[in-house]
Amino acid sequence: MSPRQHRPQAPDAGPRTSGVPPNESAPAAPLSPASDNRRDSEWVRREADRRVAHILDRVTDAFIALDQEWRVRFMNREAERLHGRPADGVIGRSCWEEWPETVGTRVETEYRRAMAEQEPVHFEHHVQHQYGPDLWLDVHAYPSDEGLAVFQRDVSHLKRVEGERRRSEARYQALVTATAQIVWTTDAAGFVAAEEAGWELFTGEPFERYGGRGWLDAVHPDDREAAAAGWSAAVEAQQVYAASYRVRRRDGVYRHFAVRGVPVFNADGSVREWVGTHTDVTAQVEALAELEAKSVRLEEQRVALERTLRAREEAEAERERLLAAAERARADAESANRAKSEFLAMMSHELRTPLNAIAGYVQLLDMELRGPVTDAQRADLARIDSSQRHLLGVINDILNFARLDAGRLHYRLEPVDVAEALGALETLVGPQLQAKAIDYAFTCTGDGALPPRATADREKLQQVVLNLLSNAVKFTEHGGRVALECEVAGDRVVVRVRDNGRGIAADRLDDIFEPFVRVEREYTRSSEGTGLGLAIGRELSRGMGGDLTVESEVGAGSTFTLTLPRA
User: Fold this and answer.
1) Which secondary structure element, helix H or strand E, spans residue 549, and what is its range?
2) Tens digit of pLDDT for each residue in 267-322?
């Protein structure tokens, strides 16, 4: 059952039961001994019901009796007041019809369980009103063969008091949290003598643990001794106590507190009690620690920056010194290079003049303009002419290299018929080929019917390839093979000189293009040369926009490859 809005109570009509009232008169009729007994029993039962109803009307709990059909058989005055309706309008009606709002709720569930199991039930029922305060009922229901006896006690006041207590505790906790302070008092001797709600709320400790000097147990072990000594000294000196230490919160986390306690004096100057506060300063302590850490980091960064700047200044000074030294070295090298080039040019000029004269006199003698020449003399003249030509070639190589090194060599780049330019070289190396019975082959393939054409300096192209052919013949054994090939490869024209001569070791392939470098001495002991031919050849090739490379294997021969831009 659930109370409705309070309605005026019906006039007191005495106990309400479902039977005939005890003072109601029955119609007169002849009586027999048996009827007298029944009448006496009925009267006794009604009298008992009247007395029970009289007692139930005066109990402080609401009482409602239900039969097995869930009809209301009795309601006491407290039930009338609580539910706001007179018993006369309820008795005989189904409780589910009278209180339809309880259908499907815990009330119906518990009532039916009590009747089914014939066991008492106890539960609380919350009654919500649209108008007026809500009610909380503490319900006990006792089943029997005749139905269900229901006792209901209004515990709304207790619920409101309990709710107010919880709200008060929550407000106090919020206040403590908001103020970050714990207010406390001690007796004159500095002992906690009464419960301190703020301390209990923060630490979670009961009075039995923090009373007296037990509060020190919540202080951090590292701070405990100093806190106790400082408090004892302040109490003894009756002076203001100020300290800072960490206190363990109820969740086990330590928080930093600034603590201050002051003595409260009696009129005679003695201390009556101490009053103090614990103020949570964890945020300030952490902020200060973070600030100090940042200061340390900034100082470290400043020192590192100074070191970096100092190192940079030193490096800059060293760079300037090296640049100055490099500039001096470059100037010295350029000066030396100019002097070398001038010396080589002068030397070559001074040497070429008498060599040309030697060649002229050899020709005059060979032509017998100075008289008859014997065969032995003619052989000597041939050797003189060969030596003169070799020496002149050496001088020309030196002069060409000096011009290259000085950057005074000029190129006349134009489309060149590579097949025609290379084909003219066979007559120049023919005598050398015949002397060593070397098999020579020349092949050149263009793009379809067109001959291969390259952008090059014709004279320098022939000079490079002629030097490569001369080297191939020089380092190929008697009866060997030398091949000259050219072909078009994309936007390049490729010229190759192959031989099956002695070959070059892999660790010397890069060295052979350096000036004055000769391949292994045992290979060149019988070969003449300055070691400038390949160096000049590579520089000329690159000056024409191409390159000169080599592939070789000792004992299998070498392949020199010249690449030029396709015209």
Assistant:
1) strand 547-553
2) 999 999 999 999 999 999 999 999 999 999 999 999 999 999 999 999 999 999 99
User: Would you say the C-alpha torsion 215, 219, 224, 229 has a positive or negative sign?
Assistant: negative
Q: What is the pTM of this model?
A: 0.38
Residue 21 tokens, joined: 């009232």
Query: Under a CB-based contact definition with an 8 Å cutoff, are residues 181 and 189 in contact?
Result: no
Measured from the Cβ of residue 72, the count of other Cβ atoms closer than 10 Å reads 26
Q: What gap in Å lies between CA 559 and CA 76, rounded to an integer?
A: 128
* C-alpha span between 311 and 520 (Å, rounded): 49
CB atoms within 10 A of CB 532: 21
Torsion, Cα 303 304 307 308, to 10 degrees, reads -140
Both tokens of residue 11? 């006039």
Coil, helix or strand at residue 94 = strand
Q: How many residues does the chain have?
A: 567
Residues 241/231, Cβ–Cβ less than 8 Å: yes
In sequence order, what are the residues at sequence separation of 6 or more whose Cβ sits closer than 8 angstroms to the Cβ of residue 231? 190, 241, 243, 261
Say if residue 558 is exposed, middle or buried (CB neighbours under 10 Å; 0-12, 13-18, 19+): buried
Q: Is there a contact between 133 and 156 (Cβ–Cβ < 8 Å)? A: yes
For residue 128, how far is the Cα from the chain centroid? 55
Q: How far apart are CA 105 and CA 508, in angstroms?
A: 104
Domains of the chain: 33-154 (3.30.450.20), 165-280 (3.30.450.20), 410-565 (3.30.565.10)
Distance set, CA 155 to CA 4, 7, 150 (Å): 16, 20, 16
DSSP state of 433: H
- What's the pLDDT tens digit per position in 135-168? 899 999 999 999 999 999 999 889 888 888 888 7
